[in-house]
Amino acid sequence: MTRRFLPVGFLFLSYAASAGGFQNGPQNARLLGLGGAATAYSRDPSGIFYNPGILGHLDSLTHLSFGGMGTARTTSFLGTDSRRQTKQDFAVMPGGYFYATHPINDRVKVGLSINTPFGYDTKWPSFWEGSSVVRSASMQTLFVQPTAAFKVNDNFSLGAGVIYAHGSLKRERSLGQYDDLEATARYEGSGSGLGYNLGMYGRTGEDLSFGISFRGPVTLKVDNGTAEYQNVPALDADRYPANSGFNTEVKLPSSLAVGLADQMTDKLLVTFDFALTGWSSYDSLNFEAQTGPRVRNGRRYEDAMAFRVGGEYEVSKDLLLRAGVSYDESPVRDEYISPELPDGNRLGGALGVSLRLSKVMLDLGYSLDVAGNRTARVNRTQYQSPNIAGTYRTMVHTLAAGVSYSFGSKK
After folding, report:
1. Residue 185 near residue 240, CB atoms below 8 Å
2. Torsion of CA 118, 123, 124, 126, to 10 degrees
3. Most buried residue, 80, 128, 215, 344, by CB count within 10 Å?
């Protein structure tokens, strides 16, 4: 590529372009097995992240749930001009979760949620045809949410939580305007922010329950970003100094979810979720470089919907089986598809199992999401947003394993 662009801003351009694709999915092995239909699922403390109102209707025991998860994306790229196929290097994005709930009295309960709801790890071959767009990129987040809930009556409860979020990003690409393929730019930054989570949970009878939740946007304030440039020709040394700094703000989206759970038989529970994620907040991103001009970038994202259905079958009190399906809509337009993390409408299936061993329950969940093919086209007017034309095919594998434990006495 021969176009010049502002590399400091491009770090976060690519981050934003990954849009719906960088949400790690369901933050618990049980919920993963349900396909993520969690807004009205009140059988596990992990529900406090997806609907704080659920906390009010948990029983009077103290509940603990913790575990680890990994997400692996397999993406191939077929260049429009070169007709060359390139596959991403295999990489697993690690994650984990911890949930704890405790009753203060029959009406008031408190809890703590710690998880990793956003992230990705992308690695392309060092000198592939899109190396000037991205070679490797990763993002990691950690959300900590203390939560409290109040049970209004036997059929209705309200809950709220405060979110502290921390995120870090790393990125590497070649400076494609030079003949030297070793001319490289590396970026790294981290930031933190606050948010909130509100929810209510209710029951219309012994068998049917519902939930509504709203998780507000979280703005990560990045004020310690660093950019490093190597093997840059002396003529452009001032444009690309060996070390530079920048600051910016990155807003993670809000989420509105509505869910139903129906105890269809003594052994079968079916759950359903609808979620609307507020990606349209990414209409533009602004960056302040310590040595360089201010950069403004328009993105034109759209809000995206998701539908999830799950089922849980109780084989016995010591064995539970789960299955789920999901459909996630992509908010990213074709002209903004990037190799940072190709994104498409995704159809997913999931399986899960819980097995009781003595006083603990072992949980296992697996999901496979298949994204629709996306074709990226280079917009010659977007000189600050370099891209490469071609078609992406992506599948996402997620595996989670955890342990659940409850203690105390029911009142």
Report:
1. yes
2. 140
3. 215
CA angle (346 as vertex; 341, 352 as ends), nearest 5: 105
Which two structure tokens, joined as six digits, stand for 126? Answer: 């060092």
With beta carbons less than 8 A apart as the criterion, state whether 327 and 6 touch.
Answer: no
Q: Which residue has the higher pLDDT, 229 or 355?
A: 355
Domains and CATH numbers, the chain: 7-407 (2.40.160.60)
Q: What is the DSSP string of 61-73?
A: SEEEEEEEEEEEE
Cα 176 to Cα 232: distance, rounded to the nearest angstrom: 11
Q: Give SS3 for 188.
A: strand
Asked if residues 168 and 139 have their Cβ atoms less than 8 Å apart, the reply is yes
Query: How far, in Å, CA of 356 to CA of 354, rounded?
Result: 7
Tell me: pLDDT of 288 over 70: no
Residue type, 201: Y
pLDDT for 12 beyond 70 = no
Mean pLDDT to the nearest integer, 37-43 = 93
Please report the pLDDT score of residue 132 as a whole number. 85
HSE (side-chain half, CA atoms, 13 Å) at 380: 1
Between CA 317 and CA 262 the distance in angstroms is 19
Give Cα separations from 15 to 11, 84, 153, 252, 277 (angstroms).
6, 25, 44, 11, 17
Task: Give the count of beta carbons closer than 10 Å to the beta carbon of residue 352.
Answer: 26
Q: Whose CA is closest to 3, among 344, 390, 365, 387?
A: 387
Tokens of 92: 């697993």
Q: CA 64 to CA 193: how far, in whole Å?
A: 26
Please state the φ and ψ torsions of residue 105, each to the nearest 5 degrees: -155, -165
Token pair of 344, please? Answer: 């498409």
pLDDT tens column, 307-365: 999 999 999 999 999 999 999 998 877 777 888 877 789 999 999 999 999 889 999 99
Tell whether the torsion through CA atoms of 96, 202, 160 and 64 is positive or negative: negative
For residue 1, the tally of other CB atoms under 10 A from its CB is 17
Minimum mean pLDDT range among 32-46, 141-155, 176-190, 287-301: 287-301
- Residue 110 structure tokens: 């408190």
